[in-house]
Amino acid sequence: MSRILIIGSEGQLGSELSTFLKKKKNIDDIILSDIKDNSSSDLTYKKLNALNFKDLESLVEDYKIDDIYHLAAILSAKGEVEPMLTWDLNMNSLFNVLNLAKNKTIKKVFWPSSISVFGNNTPKINTNQFSIKEPNTVYGISKLSGERWCEYYNIKYGTDIRSVRFPGIISSNTLPGGGTTDYAVDIFYSFLKDEKYKCFLNQDTMLPMIYIDDAIESINKIMGVKKDSLNIKSSYNLAGFSMTPKMIEIKLKKIKENFIVEYNPDYRQEIADSWPDSIDDISSQNDWGWHAKYDLGKTINEMIRRLENINK
Ligand SMILES: NC(=O)c1ccc[n+]([C@@H]2O[C@H](COP(=O)([O-])OP(=O)(O)OC[C@H]3O[C@@H](n4cnc5c(N)ncnc54)[C@H](O)[C@@H]3O)[C@@H](O)[C@H]2O)c1
């Protein structure tokens, strides 16, 4: 069995990925790392700044790491507040991981890209894998650059880097870390507390989303297939379902009719407007058998069930 390192383990995705892997693997074969002082998990945890190559290299050597899941990043909305910091973290931490993988210390890497690689000039409906990419956020620019470098390392050096372009991830373990789709998680907290939700996007903003179990399953699946079947060497389009804030409001009102959502769009509206409405993920379907299981209705039911359990 391979020994894995998760970088950015304490975030929205990392915390759920470690929980999933814990059920699947020998717990001694999972090492968590993040810049935070402590972990919320009982798995082996090492504080690490992913920008420090030497520390990363030592950690990989000390624990004889085979595969890295590199999840540390600054996301879209936060990225606009700290552009240079975002560029530095998102690019240079990726280079650190790619260079370890290039030297063959590491066997396989998972690194997520995002739908933010697309921009205002991209056709919005069923956006194609190869459609126009002119991102206008520092986050999107860093993800597109990262994709190009992943392809470069895959082809030039024969390294094994696997990647998907995640839509907005809806999950319940931790609060999201500063993305443009965070409303789709935040709204559940207000709903369960019987509070009015103030949404930072317009009610009709259609965006692609994915439920966390599908997101984790996509990582599990793409990391499990033979390298030869992956024809896309940069990052794969990935679809879950698409929704607007109004659609989720209507569904939640069916459960609690006095639930109120107020719409006050802020700077994140412009980011959301530049992204696709829906994603065509035919390459993922063909190359590694991807199919999302969760639609909006199923996602809402699971979110409410899990958040109610956490609060019990
Ligand atoms: N959440 C989404 O909706 C979404 C959508 C598309 C892509 N992604 C991608 O998935 C990955 C994980 O996203 P997330 O939602 O879990 O983000 P998050 O912000 O919740 O978590 C990121 C983690 O990285 C850690 N980190 C920050 N700087 C670090 C450093 N210098 N060294 C080590 N760790 C550091 C943070 O402490 C945090 O725990 C990112 O690459 C993100 O771009 C997420």
Features:
single chain; 312 residues; alpha/beta; Rossmann fold; UDP-galactose 4-epimerase, domain 1; six-stranded parallel β-sheet; three-stranded parallel β-sheet; 14 strands; binds nicotinamide-adenine-dinucleotide
By CATH reckoning, the class of the largest domain would read Alpha Beta
The small-molecule ligands in this entry are: nicotinamide-adenine-dinucleotide
Radius of gyration: 19 Å
Give me the CATH architecture of the largest domain, please.
Answer: 3-Layer(aba) Sandwich
Binned, the helix content reads 40-55%
Classify the secondary structure makeup into a structural class. Answer: alpha/beta
Low-confidence stretches: none
Explain how this protein is built.
It is a single chain. 42% of the residues lie in helices and 15% in strands. By secondary structure, the protein is an alpha/beta fold. β1, α1 (12-24) and β2 form a beta-alpha-beta unit. The protein has 11 helices and 14 strands. The chain starts with a strand and ends with a helix. The mean pLDDT is 96. α4 (83-102) packs parallel to α5 (138-157). The protein has 2 domains: 4-167 and 212-227, NAD(P)-binding Rossmann-like Domain (Rossmann fold); 169-208 and 240-311, UDP-galactose 4-epimerase, domain 1 (Alpha-Beta Complex). It has a 6-stranded parallel beta sheet, sandwiched between helices. The chain is globular. It binds nicotinamide-adenine-dinucleotide. Nicotinamide-adenine-dinucleotide binds next to α1 and β9.
